[in-house]
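Query form — protein DUF1450 domain-containing protein

QUESTION: What is the three-dimensional structure of this chain?
INPUT:
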Amino acid sequence: MGEIETRETQSLGIVRIETCEDNRAHQSDEAARQVCAHTAGVLHREWACLGHCHNCFKKPFALVDDRILLEADSAEELYSLLLDTLATLKSPPSIK
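ANSWER: The structure tokens for DUF1450 domain-containing protein are given below.
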């Protein structure tokens, strides 16, 4: 994702989920699309390569906001991890 596009999505409060084309065999793109379809303020982009080749050929994975790498044993597990991560990002930390 370009630097300008990254800044624009961050300023709008949009969370980005990125996947690799080559990881389609593990259905990471489908998990990300399902999350986006049911969650407001989330954008999915699929790239030819994210540079995480050691993850890509093994199992489903996604990159959230250019900084959180999520790996799972199945697309269903990746879907759950994405939802859990988004809930954490969208809710402010509690102060005791």
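ADDITIONAL NOTE: The helical segments are 3-11, 28-38, 53-56, 75-90.
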